[in-house]
Amino acid sequence: MSKPMKAFDYLLMNKSVSPVLLEKSKKISWNEINTSADPEVIKIRKKIREVRLEIHRMRGFVRFDSINDKILFGYMKPENKIEKLVTDIFARRFQKHIILLGNEKKSWISYYSENFFKRYEESKSLNKMVKDIQSLIKFDSEVDIDKIWQIYYESQYIKERENHRLFYKNMPRKNLKSVGNRLELRLNTKTLDEYL
Amino acid sequence: MASLEKILHLVTQSEYDCIGDEGKVLENINFSKIDVLGQGTKHDICASSSTSRILNQAETLGNPTRSGICHSFAANGRCLSMFKTLFTNYCIHDCKYCQNSTDYKSGKSVYSYTPEELARITISLYKGNYIEGLFLSSGVSPDQDIVTEKMIETLKILKKRYNFGGYIHFKVLPGVSYEYIKQASEMADRLSVNIETPSKEHLSEISSTKNYANDILKRQKYIKNLELKKKLPAGQTTQLVVGACEESDFEIFKRVLKEYNEMMLKRVYYSAFNSVSGTSLENMVSQPTWREHRLYQMDWLYRVYNFSENEIKIAFDDNGFLKNKDPKLSIALNNFESPLDPNDAQYGELLRVPGIGPKSAYKIINYRKKNRIYKRDHLQRLGVRIKNAIPFLKISGGEYTRLERWIECQNQ
Q1: Which chain B residue is nearest to residue A40, measuring alpha carbons?
Q2: Does residue B138 sit in the same domain as residue B49?
Q3: How far apart are the first and last CA of chain B?
Q4: Of B258, B287, B316, which closes a domain?
Q5: pTM value?
């Protein structure tokens, strides 16, 4: 899991990549990818960048609810095939917690501790998986941390600094969808959903 | 479902991070407190969560990242990566621009967190993946050490009870004792003291209670000395309020040079002055955010592009202000006698061409080891912003005269 990833590994996760590029990526170094002006290598660089950017965004934008503070679950529907990797990243970050990420069709689970790593996927929706888990264990109601976040988010608003262009550059609509529209975004007095 | 059951069994057997009744700390939380103490930090610009700290992840809850992560964006497009809050908004200082000041005319409700409350909110937001960590500042009580002690207690709870491995930015309050700064440095990734203005004369215009040399610069020296013994993972930073005391950009630049060279600062942040209703400066005109932006560009030229002090001076006008133009372009228009051949230029020379940054300069150097650059297209593929760069480059014999270059760049 902690082995450095190769260009080929990233390319394999891209939503659409030709066999020619995949084959070529096996033979070139990271340095060549980063510095070459060859049109094919530039294509590889772009495809890898797409994947890396989406991984980075998922790391930031996915939100977790919890069951008994030890099972963290959240919605995720990325464009590239990065679901397993992202679930693993969170499992490594929150060790000894179950990480469950999923959408309407599939779910991914990872669990990581010092001497134990388990990962698997299910063709069940996230909602179904959460219900399954809740049926297996006794659970308490959780604090509504989302409410605390919304209040905090609004406290950071400065009218004079509003910059819609930069806002949409950093936060395209597709990113909101891919994490289940959980992000609280406010422009003037409207939430993003109202604005759109 | 067998595997899931197995994992569930493991988790329920684990004693790690058992919150128990501590979850109740947040049941009766006062939402106005979160709002008011959050608002107290909204003009603090620093949002970086990047750190060089490495830890054993198996023993901690969470981990820092080298690149930092933005978890949300404010309506101005600014990254929100941390739970940025005051510990208390009670303050004895009279800074004229500040809503926590003793001079603040509108009614003010005073709030404070308890260390337990603040630690629990931080952990909950962190586990919900809303934040990368905590940015902890505060108003200053008559004894600054007392409030700092509470702030440090928060960090201790985070580190010892929750094994928190996320990012911590700790604001050192003006005048606080060395011992407390030392304790904070052992737990935080980044420490900062806001200098607010470029000199003691400027500070005295906006605050009669803060002493520039003793309350601020001396604390920065303490942090520097601590850093020399044990490296702070994300270094020391500071922030200036731009335009609250009619200082020029050049005066800011001179102070910034001292901060980088004498205090070994990692970064300086600039926050354009915004007039806040109810403060002594409520009728003063807010500064345009482009002024802040141009100062960041100037800062970048010094810190990342390694421009010399004398080179950067060219970008300021006779009154010591930066124009609302890219300072790199102004410098290049003054300094470039003849265009540069990208096939021969040194890395440092390439960096001085508008449209070429450290990454594209590096790519050019690597590319030309095996190839020759003779078309604009080659440069474009290497990430160069052609429109900005071409008036300063010589490609296949084609080159601009100084006048042509000046005309071409007028609209950039």
Answers
A1: B381
A2: yes
A3: 62
A4: B287
A5: 0.91
List chain A residues with CB under 8 Å of B3: 118, 120
Check residue B162 and report its DSSP letter: S
Count each helix (H run) and each strand (E run) in chain B, helices first. 16, 8
Task: Report the 10 Å Cβ neighbour count for B372.
Answer: 11
Same domain assignment for residues B352 and B229:
no
Same domain for B59 and B136: yes
CA distance B274 to B244: 8
Q: Are B354 and B328 in contact (CB under 8 A)?
A: yes
> Can you give the length of chain B in residues?
412
Cross-chain Cβ contact A170/B73 below 8 Å:
yes
How many Cα neighbours within 13 Å face the side chain of B73?
22
Instruction: Flag whether the ipTM exceeds 0.85.
Output: yes
Report the C-alpha gap between B46 and B235 in whole angstroms.
Answer: 13
The answer to whether position B205 is within a domain reads: yes
Q: Evaluate whether residue B296 is within a structural domain.
A: no
Q: Are B40 and B90 in contact (CB under 8 A)?
A: no
**pLDDT tens, position by position, B178-233:** 999 999 999 999 999 999 999 999 999 999 999 999 999 999 999 999 999 988 99
Determine the structural domain holding residue B354 and report its residue range: 336-409
Looking at CA atoms only, how far is residue B122 from chain A in angstroms?
A: 10
